[in-house]
Specification:
This protein is an alpha/beta fold and about 300 residues long. Helix content is about 20%, strand content about 20%. The strands form two sheets. The protein has a seven-stranded mixed beta sheet with strand order 4-1-2-3-5-6-7. It is globular and about 45 Å long.
């Protein structure tokens, strides 16, 4: 049985041994911010973007917990930077709201339910989807891109390799093939699509940085947000699903590249140490339930 040794995320000690001379990738051309000069985002809101029940935990913890059910959270985040709002992921499709049958990316494995909509939660703080300047996608699995089409005027930020991958020939894993097909359907053809190549400073001031963390999918990314009072916070995407997985380099069987997954976890550990950052794990329900929920926010 998985143990949750702490509810708030991982301290600077988690990655200290992975640093070189006390710095993280402080090389020429690095797109990661300088911790001493990075500017600040003003607000970080957590949105409830669904919850799910999977019937076989071992898909996410290979070799352990076969046939045991597990509940996951689905979390979106809203970042305010100046006059701009950035939405991190879009969650389970709004059509799922209060549907007792739920919705699924892989019906034989997992079912998602939705208690609140993105549009309804935005309205709580006086926003409409038209106010969202950017939608940054951690990756293209359906529970992360289920509402992209509700934001046709937003600029969609995703890794170029991810966009290419979902249209690539199918491989031997039928679950992965099914996820790619669903991604093509849900993503459609965004009017304003910005394809990224690696780490990207969204506003050019170190306040909000997209971090390339491939492995779960070829173009998976995480998000580093710098706040004045809360410091640096890393939003995991699906670089890791559970705190225990992060502590022990456990790679889900659905991930497309095990070695890349471990390397990305190492990169996040280095960032935790360098930025003294907190890690918020998207699908770890035990942790998510302890975090502030909109209209409350981190600043």
């Amino acid at each position: 049985m998985l143990r949750y040794t702490r509810t708030v995320v991982l301290s600077i000690l988690a990655g200290s041994s992975l640093l070189m001379d006390g710095t993280l990738i402080a090389t020429a051309g690095s797109k990661l911010p300088d911790a001493t000069t990075a500017s600040f985002a003003e607000q970080l809101h957590r949105l409830d973007c669904g919850h799910s029940l999977a019937n076989d935990e071992s898909v996410w913890t290979p070799g352990e917990n076969a046939g045991r059910s597990i509940e996951f959270s689905s979390t979106c985040w809203l970042v305010k930077r100046g006059s701009d709002w950035l939405l991190w992921d879009t969650g389970v499709p709004e059509a799922t709201l209060n549907d007792p049958k739920g919705w699924s990316t892989l019906p034989k494995l997992i079912v998602y339910h939705l208690d609140k909509t993105i549009t309804g939660q935005l309205a709580e703080i006086g926003l409409k989807t038209s106010h969202i300047s950017y939608v940054a996608l951690s990756h293209t699995h359906g529970d992360h891109i289920g509402n992209v089409r509700l934001l046709p005027n937003s600029t969609i930020l995703m890794q170029r390799v991810e966009y290419t991958w979902i249209s690539s020939p199918d491989g031997p894993n039928e679950n992965v093939n099914q996820l790619k097909a669903l991604a093509r359907e849900l993503l459609g053809a965004p009017q304003h699509l910005q394809l990224l190549d690696g780490d990207t400073d969204v506003f050019g001031d170190g306040s909000v940085t997209l971090v390339s963390t491939p492995g779960h999918t070829p173009g998976s990314q995480s998000l580093l947000v710098h706040l004045k009072n809360s410091g640096f916070i890393i939003l995991s995407g699906d670089v890791v699903h559970l705190e225990e997985n992060f502590e022990n380099n456990i790679v889900p069987s659905l991930n497309t590249d095990k070695a890349a997954s471990i390397a990305s976890m190492d990169k996040i550990r280095q960032m935790i140490a360098t930025y003294r950052a907190k890690l918020f794990i998207n699908h770890d329900k035990a942790q998510s339930d302890t975090l502030k929920l909109l209209p409350a926010f981190y600043d």
